[in-house]
């Protein structure tokens, strides 16, 4: 029998033909490989959130193998000696086991917690980037809404997650959550009793939170994240203005190979940073808090950072109780306003913002070019106002710690927060607005008169003037140089940016080969030096 | 012929024949990009093949990958052989988690930096421009899809046969309710079962048996157990009285100084609670009326009780009235006395609702 010679080199090609015969994927795959992505460091923030979410899924699955979501009382007999013999819930005991009796369990638990904090932080910072650059405008309003919802779903994921260990700290958080539900007018007691299966704490809340935390909420997150990414893909990413960039194109790199390689590397870096934090920085040491007991709490019990703004709003709320004198009398407790109404308003305002702004500006166009924050002073100032509001609330969530560490009266801190909440946002609006205008003005000034060189020249009549380096070549204008139009991107303001400084010579101990040209990044278009630089003129002298 | 070629023909140069043997591979790549409306306008290698720079970068990337291998191996070695089980004191087990995190982090960071260096430094730089087709409305497509959908609606004929629509709605509405019913019905729980929101573990047992105040370990308390100015968390002396089953029962028993006790009694009398104290002893619910945290920080000098969760402050000598912070209601007071054996008992349950406020609280 004659054996056919096996040609190894031709195998991948044959296999590819075989696949394409069956699935006809060649052309769609080419489109995918070719898709162009614009590049800028600020576009990576959302990816940190995405990558943290992947780490959350991986570490979370590991934790489910060992966690027991039950509130049945057990007596701890694990290896953590200080708690041996203590009656506690099975949930808390199994969380201790993950920390002490599962090999490598603690590093997984801490990575999971750090990844959650990073996930929420990346969402917030990404959201700020999208807001301040106007990336939420038509046609991307839907993605903005999904992004805002992702924050709140992530918030729920975090809260249900850190409630699971049933330790002294998280039990107090659950207690407050039950009080928040109780405060809802008319249906509050029914909602609470239905969720907790009776009076607080009941015996079922941990298992209900568990299924919400490991199935319902992650499912929702996966769905929202998929749509979010799908829309970015479909609508194509926004880009900064710059040479060759228009509202109608995308200037950047094709997805493969370089862009994808950079993404893969970045994922590993995020993963690595989370691993370092999970190993080196202790977080939520539940064994120090003890099991939850309704009568034990310590000072400085703070929730995770993304919940702190609601804690702050609760602390600042004056004791305004509304009594409705009908029948036996009904009550709307003060807790209702900062914990139910305020988040409701925040969700509404944030999701509606793109439409509110478009309506205000009568803007129906599609925008694929980003705006620098200074070029939209009103929006930037509104954003600063929101940030100020949030920061005051978050700081107030830690006002007891601040009062303690800085020896300030606690009541003074509360009053500072109450006043700050009213004063700081308008102040932030005003200051930001003026800053934006000032920056705009400076950009125009540099475009018109040139860059300050730092060279002072004495004129024959004794005056001193600073010499300016104009940005455009002479065009027969009376000034000796032309004026440039502002195009929505960085205006060079230092001589070094004009190539006055030679490119850096690379090499750690000794130079490697010849000095290379200044790096060309799509985000920072190269600025050509003027052909002849001897003609340094004074910016002032033409007046 | 794919639609792309037609599209290209209308706006650009004629498509290349990709089977032309004279074309380089990059020519074909560029042609493929063109068919996706992408123009590769700038494509420049960062390091030339065979140069010192290329060899150096290759070594750097390879170095990163080797570090990954070393760190990952170290991780495995530590995972297997490092003492990991908890021991009291400063044993080597305290370094187990940090070492795991460190080696894992280094392994991942090194592979990340290796890939990043590879991508950023070794691959050619490019600038490509892809058309967005912004504002190019496919109005014909809109018309066709719109008409197709309207046609489908016509075919269904709901307009002509309204009974179909009505009956479908009438049929499906209860089905939706059926889907929701088990969830709502299963979860819903009557909040006022056994009057639970208005009673605590101190409610007098059947037969008029009054409930003792006990410590965390279940022992009853004599007046002499608390020194002047001191305070103690007490619980109902019933089964599971100390546990979370009676999460609204923890109570703070305070032995007031003479002058403070007099002030407290006067305040008690003002609201008709004249007989709630026993001697200089007063007992208040520890569950904050704001959000239910234990209001547990008692300041002896000012007789204020502070809740550490949201900093509500209650003035004990004025019926535990809230004097600062978000709480709007005073802490309920437990009427107490000493029984024939000399132990503290609750005269009755709390006469006001314990714990955070809610709508139907009278």
UniProtKB/TrEMBL annotation, chain A:
Domain Cytochrome b/b6 N-terminal region profile: 15-241
Stretches with biased composition (Basic and acidic residues): 527-543
Top-level taxon in the UniProt lineage: Bacteria
E.C. no: 7.1.1.8
Residues that span the membrane, as ranges: 41-67, 113-132, 144-164, 209-233, 264-283, 335-356, 376-395, 415-433
InterPro entries, per database record: Cyt_b/b6_N, Cytb/b6-like_sf, Di-haem_cyt_TM
Pfam families: Cytochrom_B_N_2 (PF13631)
Keywords: Membrane, Transmembrane, Transmembrane helix
Cofactors (names): heme
Reaction equation(s) it catalyzes: a quinol + 2 Fe(III)-[cytochrome c](out) = a quinone + 2 Fe(II)-[cytochrome c](out) + 2 H(+)(out)
Positions of region (Disordered): 519-543
Enzyme class: translocase
Protein name: Cytochrome bc1 complex cytochrome b subunit
Lineage: Bacteria, Bacillati, Actinomycetota, Actinomycetes, Micromonosporales
UniProtKB/TrEMBL annotation, chain B:
Domain Rieske: 248-345
Transmembrane regions listed in the UniProt entry: 60-84, 96-118, 163-188
InterPro entries reported in the protein's UniProt record: QcrA_N (IPR045603), Rieske_2Fe-2S (IPR017941), Rieske_2Fe-2S_sf (IPR036922), Rieske_Fe-S_prot (IPR014349)
Segments of this protein annotated with the region Disordered: 1-20
Cellular compartments annotated: Cell membrane
Domain of life of the organism encoding this protein: Bacteria
Keyword Plastid (UniProt): no
Sorted UniProt keywords: 2Fe-2S, Cell membrane, Disulfide bond, Electron transport, Iron, Iron-sulfur, Membrane, Metal-binding, Oxidoreductase, Respiratory chain, Transmembrane, Transmembrane helix, Transport
SUPFAM superfamilies named in the record: ISP domain
Location, primary (coarse class): membrane
Topological relation to the membrane, as annotated: Multi-pass membrane protein
Keyword Transmembrane helix found: yes
Described purpose of this protein according to its UniProt entry: Iron-sulfur subunit of the cytochrome bc1 complex, an essential component of the respiratory electron transport chain required for ATP synthesis. The bc1 complex catalyzes the oxidation of menaquinol and the reduction of cytochrome c in the respiratory chain. The bc1 complex operates through a Q-cycle mechanism that couples electron transfer to generation of the proton gradient that drives ATP synthesis.
Family, similarity comment: Belongs to the Rieske iron-sulfur protein family.
This protein's name: Cytochrome bc1 complex Rieske iron-sulfur subunit
């Amino acid at each position: 029998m004659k054996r056919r010679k096996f040609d190894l080199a031709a195998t991948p090609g044959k296999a590819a033909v075989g696949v394409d015969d069956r699935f006809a994927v060649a052309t769609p795959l080419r489109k995918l490989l070719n898709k162009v992505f614009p590049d800028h460091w600020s576009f990576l923030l959302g990816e940190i959130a995405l990558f943290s979410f992947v780490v959350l899924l991986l570490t979370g699955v590991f934790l489910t193998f060992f966690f027991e979501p039950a509130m049945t009382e057990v007596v701890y007999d694990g290896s953590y000696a200080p708690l041996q013999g203590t009656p506690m819930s099975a949930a808390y005991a199994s969380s201790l086991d993950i920390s002490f009796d599962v090999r490598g369990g603690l590093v997984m638990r801490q990575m999971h917690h750090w990844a959650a904090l990073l996930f929420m932080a990346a969402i917030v910072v990404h959201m700020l980037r999208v807001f301040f650059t106007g990336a939420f405008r038509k046609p991307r309003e839907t993605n903005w809404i999904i992004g805002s919802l992702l924050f709140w779903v992530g918030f729920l994921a975090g809260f249900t997650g850190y409630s699971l260990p049933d330790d002294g700290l998280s039990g107090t958080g659950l207690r407050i959550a039950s009080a928040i539900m109780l405060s809802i007018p008319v249906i509050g007691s029914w909602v609470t009793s239905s969720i907790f299966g009776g009076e607080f704490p009941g015996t079922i809340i941990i298992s209900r939170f568990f299924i919400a935390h490991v199935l319902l909420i992650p499912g929702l997150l996966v769905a929202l994240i998929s749509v979010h990414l799908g829309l970015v893909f479909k609508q194509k990413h926004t880009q900064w203005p710059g040479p060759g960039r228009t509202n109608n194109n995308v200037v950047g790199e094709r997805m493969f190979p370089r862009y994808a390689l950079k993404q893969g590397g970045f994922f590993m870096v995020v993963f690595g940073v989370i691993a370092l934090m999970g190993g080196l920085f202790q977080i939520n040491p539940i064994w120090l808090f003890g099991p939850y007991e309704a009568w034990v709490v310590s000072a400085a019990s703070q929730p995770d950072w993304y919940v702190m703004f609601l804690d702050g709003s609760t602390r600042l709320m004056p004791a305004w109780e509304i009594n409705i004198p009908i029948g036996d009398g009904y009550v709307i407790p003060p807790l209702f306003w900062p914990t139910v109404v305020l988040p409701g308003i925040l969700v509404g305002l944030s999701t509606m913002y793109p439409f509110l702004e478009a309506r205000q500006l009568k803007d129906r166009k599609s925008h694929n070019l980003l705006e620098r924050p200074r070029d939209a002073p009103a929006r930037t100032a509104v954003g600063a106002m929101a940030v100020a509001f949030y920061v005051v609330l978050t700081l107030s969530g830690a006002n007891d710690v601040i009062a303690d560490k800085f020896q300030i009266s606690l009541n003074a801190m509360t009053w500072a927060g109450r006043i700050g909440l009213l004063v700081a946002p308008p102040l932030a609006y005003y200051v930001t607005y003026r800053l934006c205008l000032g920056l705009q003005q400076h950009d125009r000034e540099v475009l018109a008169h040139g860059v300050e060189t730092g060279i002072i020249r004495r004129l024959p009549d004794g005056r001193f003037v600073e010499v300016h380096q104009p940005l455009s070549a002479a065009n027969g204008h009376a000034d000796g140089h032309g004026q440039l139009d502002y195009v929505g991107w960085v205006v060079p303001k230092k001589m070094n940016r004009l190539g006055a400084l030679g490119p850096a010579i690379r090499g750690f101990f000794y130079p490697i080969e010849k000095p290379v040209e200044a790096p060309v990044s799509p985000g920072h278009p190269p600025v050509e030096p003027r052909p002849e630089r001897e003609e340094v003129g004074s910016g002032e002298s033409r007046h | 012929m794919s639609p792309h070629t037609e599209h290209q023909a209308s706006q650009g140069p004629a498509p290349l024949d990709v089977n032309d043997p004279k074309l380089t591979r990059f020519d074909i790549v560029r042609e493929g990009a063109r068919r996706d409306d992408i123009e590769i306008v700038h494509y420049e290698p960062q390091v030339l093949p065979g140069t010192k720079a290329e060899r150096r970068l290759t070594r750097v990337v390879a170095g990163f990958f080797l570090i990954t291998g070393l760190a990952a191996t170290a991780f495995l070695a530590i995972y297997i052989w490092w003492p990991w089980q908890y021991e009291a004191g400063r044993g080597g087990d305290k370094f187990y988690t940090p070492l795991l995190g460190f080696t894992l982090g280094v392994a991942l960071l090194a592979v990340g930096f290796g890939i990043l260096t590879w991508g950023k430094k070794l691959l050619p730089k490019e600038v490509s421009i892809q058309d967005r087709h912004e504002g190019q409305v496919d109005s014909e497509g809109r018309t066709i899809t719109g008409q197709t959908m309207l046609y489908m609606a016509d075919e269904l004929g709901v307009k002509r046969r309204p009974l179909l629509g009505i009956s479908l709605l009438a049929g499906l509405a209860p089905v939706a309710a059926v889907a929701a019913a088990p969830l709502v019905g299963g979860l819903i729980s009557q909040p006022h079962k056994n009057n639970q929101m208005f009673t605590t573990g101190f409610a007098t047992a059947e037969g008029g048996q009054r409930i003792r105040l006990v410590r965390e370990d279940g022992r009853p308390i004599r007046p002499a157990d608390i020194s002047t100015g001191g305070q103690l968390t007490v619980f109902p002396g019933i089964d599971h009285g100390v546990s979370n089953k009676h999460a609204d029962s923890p109570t703070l028993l305070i032995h007031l100084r003479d002058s403070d006790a007099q002030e407290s009694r006067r305040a008690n009398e003002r609201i008709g609670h004249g007989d709630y104290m026993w001697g200089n002893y007063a007992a208040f619910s520890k569950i904050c009326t704001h959000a239910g945290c234990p209001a547990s920080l008692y300041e002896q000098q000012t007789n204020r009780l502070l809740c550490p969760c949201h900093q509500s402050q209650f003035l004990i000598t004025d019926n535990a009235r809230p004097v600062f912070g978000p709480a709007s209601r005073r802490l309920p007071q437990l009427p107490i006395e000493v029984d024939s054996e000399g132990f503290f008992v609750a005269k009755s349950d709390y006469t006001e609702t314990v714990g955070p406020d809610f709508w139907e609280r009278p």
